[in-house]
Amino acid sequence: MPEKTKTEAPKAEVKTSRYGPYNEIIIDHFRNPRNQGEIADADAVAKVGSPICGDELHLYIKVGTNAAGQLYISDVKFMSFGCAAAVATGSIITELAKGKTLEDALKIGRKDVAMALGGLPVQKIHCSLLSTDALHEAIYDYYKKHGIAVPADLEQLHQNIIKGTTIARMKQEQDVDYCAVPNISFL
Q1: 127 catalytic, yes or no?
Q2: pTM
Q3: What total of structural domains would you count in the chain?
Q4: Is 83 labeled as catalytic in the residue annotation?
Q5: Roughly how many angstroms between the first and final C-alpha of the chain, as a whole number?
Q6: 9-39 burial, b for 16+ CB within 10 Å, e for fewer?
Q7: Spatial distance between the Cα atoms of 185 and 70, rounded to a whole number of angstroms
Q8: Residue 32 DSSP code
């Protein structure tokens, strides 16, 4: 009887640049972060951390009403305490969210963050989750502070974030294919 062979998961090969595993976009956002700082009179604030590496991200949002009467993010700033990828994802999430309605901002996912940065090294995928969790938590905070009904999916996400299960959720989804962009390839 033939012996069963074990199928191995694809191995990731990091294409290095002059910045190691980081591409030029990530380095630019790390060295020149956009919208960094605090908003003293923020309408909502989120503070999230990563149990993987200890990175922490604080996100501050101001909310306005657009011409169509929809709530939108009129200003957003961040403070990041962590590695280059944590700073870069904090920077890019502010650019992705600024000007979006709260409903549209809730649709921004970690794939959007990773793709906007031209990809992330596999070992830094969790940083994209950190930034989207911060954005979603800030919107959650806004809804709660202003007596707005929290959508069920946002409430569930909030519960997962406060329980620290977002990393487990990411592992369950096992969708690292969005990292297969210029600086990452799978063999």
Answers
A1: yes
A2: 0.80
A3: 1
A4: no
A5: 30
A6: eeeeeeeeeeeebbbebbbbbbeebbbeeeb
A7: 41
A8: S
Task: For residues 92 and 79, give the distance between their C-alpha atoms in angstroms, rounded to a whole number.
Answer: 12
- Report yes or no on 2 lying in a domain: no
Token pair in block for residue 37: 């700082």
- pLDDT per residue as tens digits for the range 50-101: 766 778 999 999 999 999 999 999 999 999 988 889 999 999 999 999 999 9
- CA dist 81 and 91 (Å) reads 12
* Within-domain flag for 6: no
Find the catalytic residue in 25, 39, 45, 53.
53
Q: What is the CATH number of the domain that holds 135?
A: 3.90.1010.10
The active-site residue out of 42, 127, 134, 139 is 127
| Assigned token pair, 131 | 């930034």
Listed residue (144, 51, 39, 54) closest to 94, CA to CA:
39
